[in-house]
Amino acid sequence: MSESDTEDWQENARMIVDSARAIVPADGSLSRVRKARFHGSGFDREVMRQAADLGWMLMRVEEDAGGLGLGMRETCALMEVLGGGLVPEPVLSSLMAAAVLQERLPEAVLTGEAVIVTAWQDKVGAQDWRGGASGGRLLGRKYNVPGAADADFFAVVTGGGVAVVPRGAEGLTVTSEETLDGGRTGLLTFDGVEAEFLPCERVEQVLQDARLAHSAYLLGLSERALTITLDYLRVRKQFDKPIGSFQSLQHRATEMKIRLELARAAISATARRFDTGADERTRSRDAARCKLRAGELAMLVAREAVQMHGAMGITDEADIGLFVRKAISEANLFGGPRQQRASLAALLDQEEAA
Description:
By secondary structure, the chain is of the alpha+beta class. Helices cover 51% and strands 14% of the residues. A four-stranded antiparallel beta sheet has the order 2-3-7-6, with no helix packed on it. Strands 1-4-5 form a three-stranded mixed beta sheet. The protein starts with a helix and ends with a helix.
């Protein structure tokens, strides 16, 4: 990679991060996030319109298809900022839909007038996505659909292709339930929904990209939660001393910081490999490794934050409690630690057999 290419992506990432400040306050305020919890659809359509105006929906759409053609390094930079701000909007799911559909994305989504999210997961606790297509119709279910409560379109991923399904399609039932962090997750049930299946050979690649991008979201969440916790250790006192001066807590804080920086390095290196043409096996392996690191990191920081804050760490009034709930809600999306280890073991077996 040339020096100019490196400078290009870094400048792009800086601009993307700067644009995110329209949604994630620079002062770290979580007032908007608090208002959205346990209320309505769990996200703000105006924020999704802003995201469209800022060009985020087109980040992973190729330039010859009318998009920005940006890479995973820029995408991960954005998702890290959104994670630090606990942004509840289904930005990543919309990015996935755009990446799958490319120039076939509905015009209303490009203008921000409509919201599209991706429905891909066939089973709870599994990463299967090829079900649903049968003779020009959609059957069965798609689980864990973010933003389903108020989305206008669904990009439904199946083994027979991708179908763009409007919310009011005959035979489609959309149900949603609250998550621990105050958001909502959706279930789509298809009873013979007529659909046009668009060919797409990039589904697995898009899912790998999303797994990496979600790892960056968890990284941003974990870093902000750790910062809040370290600040608390400096002000809370026992025996007339800040508890942050206790060696045992220093060791635990150091462990979190090391794990965080290792996750950051892994995500950065993987994003670079994705952008420079990694092969399919490398992409699968590295995305799983990053998701494993990021998911475990988020849960580690959440546990330690509660321990170090004491009982107030899980209260609704404390900001750290919002991060703990979000970590629990998000850590297993795109596959939890057990699934990532199973994926890595299977890839290792394939390499040994080759």
